[in-house]
Amino acid sequence: MSSYAFIWLSILAIGAGTFLLRFTFLQLAGRVVLPHAVTRALRFLPAAVLSAIILPAILRTGQGTLYFGLDNPRLIAGALAALVAWTTRSVIATLVAGMGSLWVLQAMF
Amino acid sequence: MSETSAKKRQDWIAGMRVMLPLLPGAVPFGMITGAVTADAQFTALQGIGQSIIVFAGAAQLASTQLIADAAPLAVVILTGLVINLRFAMYGTSLGPHFGSLSTGKRALIAYLMTDQAYALSITRYMSDAEMTPMAKFRYYMGGAAAMWFVWTAATAAGYFLGNKVPASWSLDFFVPLSFLALIVPNIRDRATATAALAGGGTAVAAWSLPFNIGLFAAALCGIAAGYAVEVAAGRRATRSEGER
User: Fold this and answer.
1) Structure letter (DSSP) for residue A34
2) pTM for this prediction
3) Same domain, B121 and B215
4) Contacts of B127 (CB under 8 A, 6+ apart)
5) Do residue B16 and residue B129 come from a single domain?
6) Which pLDDT band, with edges at 50, 70 and 90, does A13 fall under?
7) Which residue has the higher pLDDT, A55 or B186?
8) Contact (CB<8Å) B84/A45
9) Nearest chain B Cα to A4, which residue?
10) Structural domains counted in chain B
11) Across the interface, do A3 and B41 touch by the CB < 8 Å criterion?
12) Cα separations in angstroms, A7 against A20, B50, B73, B178, B230
């Protein structure tokens, strides 16, 4: 197979499969009444998946590894942003606190 | 249909506005994804076509790198799909909100599904029980369409120019910050807090696993932990009621 055809084949197959993953469950969950236990469990998905995206992204270093030390600017900036999010519940304030402190800390270190 | 066109426009704009802070994070990621396709000898149409047909950054990046490493086709495809398994969970979570919409609209929702669109929409739907399915649809589409344009443009720019955003700007940091702002107000009880801690902890512990498996595992562990705490609390409540 030429690499041209190989690339198209991979794009089309991943595209079709991904659409099915996105669509099938959306369609089923819209048409069928989900068991009560499933609905109850799904209530926890946003908190679980978002913190699973947030935490590694905050602990990550420029080298792509995770670092827990207090001299990691992202960790300090992330903690500060979490505090601001908790007290103000404002998206803008959280972004300003987080990005602002990260840029200041990066300039200092 | 008593909804005015002004109200409809407001829903779109509201969805777009909450997506705004998530867009800068997509730019460097999109440019890297586009630049990698150019390095892997994709034609311009293939590079841009990948963004339009697959529309899932992590899967695009990983599959392109495997193609560059001359991996077998089955490995490339399976890797892309495993990374996207989380969309099945997002779909199950969103589905009940769109029950009365047409299949066409739901196909559109599915096609535009991203971590960002899911996060914005579900947190809003959970805090506003008054929204109609159509209002939910417009809110979702406002944000999801904005992300589609930015992602497609960023990958196209990356294909032709390479990644021009300096790493020192740390634009990727907008993503965890936006998600923090979304989820913190939604942590209202001990069960949800447990789900967040278990999810975050699992993701960190499973960081080195390939194919986004850590994210999928974190979602499952978080759900299980939150559910267990809620069931235990419910049992305690019933028991103390019985004692009264």
Assistant:
1) P
2) 0.87
3) no
4) B185, B186
5) yes
6) very high
7) A55
8) no
9) B42
10) 2
11) yes
12) 20, 9, 9, 34, 47
- Asked if residue B179 is part of any domain, the answer here is no
Given an 8 Å threshold on Cβ–Cβ distance, is B87 in contact with A98? no
Closest CB from A11, A31, A57 relative to B50: A11
| Shared domain check, B81 and B21 | yes
Residue B180 lies in a domain: no
Subunit contact B92:A10, Cβ cutoff 8 A = no
Q: What is the pLDDT of residues B5-63, one digit of tens each?
A: 888 999 999 999 999 999 998 998 899 999 999 999 999 999 999 999 999 998 999 99
CB contact under 8 A, B175 and A50: no
> Which residues of chain A have a CB within 8 Å of the CB of B219?
45, 48-49, 52
Q: Are residues B26 and B142 in the same domain?
A: yes
* Facing residue for A46 by CB, picked from B103, B183, B221: B183
Interchain CB contacts (distance < 8 Å): A and B: 279
Q: Name the minimum distance, in Å, from the CA of B244 to any CA of chain A.
A: 27
Q: How far apart are CA A26 and CA B91, in angstroms?
A: 4
**pLDDT band with cut points at 50, 70 and 90 for residue B211:** confident
**Alpha-carbon span B124 to B30, nearest angstrom:** 26
B162 and B192, same domain (yes or no): no
Q: Is the ipTM of this complex over 0.90?
A: no
Query: What pLDDT shows up at residue B242?
Result: 60
Calculate the CA B191 to chain-centre distance.
Answer: 22
B19 domain residue, yes or no: yes
Tell me: do B130 and B29 sit in the same domain. Answer: yes
Kindly state whether residue B178 falls inside one of the protein's structural domains: no
Same domain (yes/no): B216, B124? no
- Contact B77/A14, CB-based, under 8 Å? yes
Q: Are residues B129 and B95 in the same domain?
A: yes
For a pLDDT cut of 90, what percent of chain A falls above it? 65
Show the domain range for B91: 5-167
In angstroms, the separation between the Cα of residue A8 and the nearest Cα of chain B is 7
Burial of B193 (0-12, 13-18, 19+ CB in 10 A): middle
Q: Are A100 and B202 in contact (CB under 8 A)?
A: no
CB contact under 8 A, B122 and A46: yes
pLDDT, one tens digit per residue, over A59-81 is 987 677 888 887 889 999 999 99
Give the closest-approach CA distance of A87 to chain B in angstroms: 9
pLDDT over threshold 70, residue B244: no
Contact by Cβ (8 Å): B7, B132: no
